[in-house]
Amino acid sequence: MKRKIVSTIFLVMLGTLCCHAAGSVEGENDPRTIESGRQITVVDASGREISVPLDPGHVICSGAGSLRLLTYLQAQDRAVAVDDMEGRRPRFDARPYSLANPQFAALPLFGEFRGHDNPELIAALDPQPQVIFKTFSSTGTDPLELERQTGIPVVVLDYGDLSSYREQFYTALRTMAAIMARGERAEELIAFFETTIADLDGRTADIPQEEKKSCYIGGIAYRGPHGFQSTEPTYPPFMFVNADNVAWAPGGSLAELEHADVAKEQLVFWDPDVLFVDVSTLQSDPRASAVYELQSDPAYTELTAVRTGEVYGVLPYNWYTVNFGSILADSYFVGQVLYPERFRDIEPAAKADEIYEFLVGAAVFQRMNRAFQGLVFTRIPL
Fold this sequence. Notes:
Layout: H1 2-21, H2 33-36, E1 39-43, E2 49-53, E3 59-62, H3 66-72, E4 82-83, H4 96-99, E5 109-112, E6 116-117, H5 119-123, E7 131-135, H6 143-150, E8 154-157, H7 166-180, H8 183-204, E9 214-218, E10 230-231, H9 236-240, E11 244-245, E12 260-261, H10 264-270, E13 274-278, H11 290-296, H12 298-301, H13 304-308, E14 311-314, H14 324-338, H15 348-360, H16 365-371
Parallel strand pairs: 3-7, 4-5, 7-8, 9-11, 9-13, 13-14
Antiparallel strand pairs: 1-2, 5-6, 10-12
């Protein structure tokens, strides 16, 4: 009888261990799981059901924004290689996650930016990555081909945004977090974004339309720097503070566009009260930047905002795809310019660093501002 009892207990314990090894995520925050060899099965953004090591010690992040998500989850120390974007040292850099982690530039390369991965370089890495995370999988190396050539599971993520595709962004965070045993951090991030966006809306939602200043954002980067005609009808900081954006109107021809080039004649007709400039335009040829155009183009020098000095610089947020923290930081500055009484408790530079410290672990606003000639969150002298 005693033997039967002992055998039964042994079988139950063995079954429990096998169940955990097969992919249970209970206790996924236990640091021992890095060495346990346990597996987790996820459904990635391509719809594939894929089994990967749970809480892997070594990973790589392919595609725009992929390494940013890993940094948000405070797991950037697991990256064993980077794409060549991290090795570049341009004069301008508006990627807070990278500025906060200069060690990325010293890591080996596994391929080119925008997902153009090199299987041979990946095969030569030591230590070998256990998982490859891949965003924007329709560009660059095909995920299935990359998996076939390297023998490493490739998890596709839909990067999303903070507007129409916010749930996709949250799903990407949760999927990566489930694999990296960072579930609690993912929920903290999601709560942070939701709370911050709600705060912006709560400060401005009840302002009557007739009391709002009209505004426009020019110089928006779109696959490179652009001049003042380049805008976003659905510019997120304007949306979050319920701004009167002249380039957006429900049902209008520009209403659903992420990017648009506006005719000068239209800008003159709109004549917004306040102008914002995305300082990414400073990457352009000096005589092609939005700042130079506002200083010298007769079509712009007579705009009301130019004559009254109501022209302000904001951070680029679309730099190796969306920098979510910069969207929020810009939103607070835009809100303060348009509705000073509603944002009088906000110091924009300090607020930006508060956001960056939470998301990427470092205050990097001043470094970015210096790179952009100190024109961020201030009036642009014309």
